[in-house]
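User: Predict the complex.
Assistant: Input components as received:
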Amino acid sequence: MVQAPDLLAQTIWEGLVSGVLYALIALGFVLIFKASGVFNFAQGIMVVFAALTLVGLYEKGVPAFLAVILTLGVMFALAVTIERVVLRPLVNQPDIILFMATFGITYFLIGFGEAVFGGSPKQMIADQLWLPKGAIDLKLFGGLVSLQKIDIAAAVIASVMIAALAAFFQYTRIGRALRAVADSHKAALSVGISLNQIWVIVWFTAGIVALITGIMWGARSDVSFALEIVALKALPVLILGGFTSIPGAIVGGLIIGIGEKLGEFYWGPLIGGGIESWLAYFIALGFLLFRPQGLFGDKIIERI
Amino acid sequence: MFYREAGQFKSTYSADMAVFPIWQDRVGIAVILALAFIGVPLIGNDFFISSVMIPFLVFSLAAIGLNILTGYTGLISLGTAAFMGVGAYAAYKLTTFFPGINVIVLVLVSGLFSAAIGVLFGLPSLRIKGFYLAVATLAAQFFLQWAFVRVPWLFNYNASGAIEVPQRTLFGLPITGASASPETRYFVCLVLVVGLTWFASNLVHGKLGRSWMAVRDMDIAAELMGIKLLNAKLTAFAVSSFYAGVAGAMMIFFWYGGGEAADVFNIRLSFNILFMVIIGGLGSLIGSFFGAAFIASLPTILKFGLPALGVPLSGAAAEHVTFMLVGALIITFLIVEPHGLARLWQIGKQKLRTWPFPY
């Protein structure tokens, strides 16, 4: 590891970048889990769906920024539909049933997305959205470390969004209501907070996060349904960070991102390579044994 | 009219506790078995047997396996396909090492390897549950799938990276390999599935099954009643993975006949089997068959059935519709009938019993 500090720096940087993207997906999970106790398996496909809608609309001739707004509208419609069709009839069911219901949402969205926009990978409209491209080469430790501008932009946008979400939760009326619902559904209901409204807001917020994640991820690779598998990486991130913590999602994402890139780079070749596909899960599993509630999660005392 | 139990009095406890207490049910099972053993090979053509019936049997067995874990014990698993893969590769390795031993024995033995791996990945279930366990099983899914590609020993270092099933015979008839007729392969699958279903039925109606269900319904109460959670959960993992492993070995040996096994046992397959369990009915053996029949036949029905009815539907569109339909059906079933198709079947029988009166 010592011989090539520039390679180490490059690897860590790449890990950081994919960590930010994992964190963004995990953020969508956390938002929904906090406010409705639903473990939303469909967050990954929502990212794909949002990105596909954006690109699909653009290809139909809608100007790029109008397409963003229209996509937001679609995500809002999706949030309302999910609340009406899935969540409301299933309220008060065991968590595991709601979890399985989100599998249903996932499959429906896969089929729907493919039927409307086609299953082939698409190019994200990064230029039209004024996202930077190209790379900055830094001279570090006697070698070149290349930073993609789009990655820097992703990190910046992610930070801004997290700050905005934190402020939204902390200072606005709706944010207070969301925190109340997260603490206790019943108590929130009894002081006149509408659960249905809150759920729509939360799923819509998760939709916005999904859209931003989709744009960022689509700009690095293509927009395709392959992302769906990558989105499963958000699960170990959540375990590491704790299911209910926004900072936890970020820190967990970064740890997983850096951990798996370093693991792939240094130990991968020893056992055949490609260990990125499962390393994250093993990191999370090992962590579970010592701290089941995650880094920042609420300690739920549940004896098994 | 015919399905009525009036006049059938039980005079022993064992008759009262029987799995099929009504003689019409016993006759029904006999008819279904007769159809499966005699009717299908006589009437069905090769296409029907090898691409409808054999997949159906394989999926049913895998669904029974997952149902034991998820439906009876309440532990969610997203790694069924990986355990199926373990069975397939174990059977392949075993038949390379012991070419003299009958392949059916090896297929059953390979289930034991799968069970061992299943217990290993089930160990975290003692400390964690719910979503956390889903991550543990996902770890199994991705790790094992990776191992199937990257460990050349598993596929005997051949260049293609695929496993090729050699020809093996039973009573002089080829049952695996290219020259095995669909009927023979179907018979072998059928015997295995019927036998293992009978075994599973005895398990879930016995002491072990009761302890699984107790753990599912309330683990703390189960522990208070003296059920050892460690034993109950790990046996559930072991039995479930055993079934999955046998199903996987059957899938490669009697259905695919080789090929890119690592691609077959992907996470999509895991999800599909979970859907079979949900739609068929959690905690029901017959539901596993219903679910497998439903999910496995849906794409075929949409692809060939709708154009035959005059609804034009291209192959790609049929696939999209399948996805949407499966997704919508999962949500519908969870909302309307959480016990799945098996419960609908029960309701139907109940209605028949009291027919023509509704109560």
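The beta strands of chain A are 135-140, 143-148.
Let me know if you want any component modeled separately.
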